[in-house]
Write a structure and sequence with these properties.
Elements (H helix, E strand, L loop, with lengths): L1 H23 L10 H22 L11 H29 L27 H16 L3 H28 L1 H9 L3
Helix pairs in contact: 1-2, 1-3, 2-5, 3-4, 4-5, 5-6
Length: about 180
Amino acid sequence: MLKVTVCTFWFVFLVIEIILFFKNRNKARYRMNNKFIILSMIYSAVVAVFIIYIIYNQNLQFLYKSTALNGYIFKLTGLVLVCLGLFIAIYTRLYMAGNWSPSILPNGNHELITKGPYAFLRHPLYFGVIIALAGNAVIFAGHWILILFVAFIFLLIKIREEEKYLKEKYGLLYQQYAKKVII
């Protein structure tokens, strides 16, 4: 039952991402030769494949094996992390609306967002996804720990590139924001 619940949350997240992508695609002028669009698509495909893997794999390894209480605590903690992470990611994506782009390059009327979830985190969408993946790693061992690691490395690279671009585009305004919102 937990397996289906976690997969359902991820499926809803992916469906919302796809709907919002197609809803906003006409508002943005994407540069399709950008390597980050390709990496984003590959990353999304990998996540989708592993969700299907979890649904059909009956031999899951668990991080916990001792007592029923420990197992329950791990499951509950992991489920809370998955829910919280995907909520943060979905809320951020909805808050960004037309400012979202699959690449680090903005659409035509991109603006620096410093309110909403961005008042607390510089990259709340990525933060939410990492928290949700960490929840999966708490619930399910095995492949999820590797996925968490790969996703973390991918997002660190993307964040570094976005930070460079934002510093160039917004200069002092972004530097002041970065000092105010550390993470």
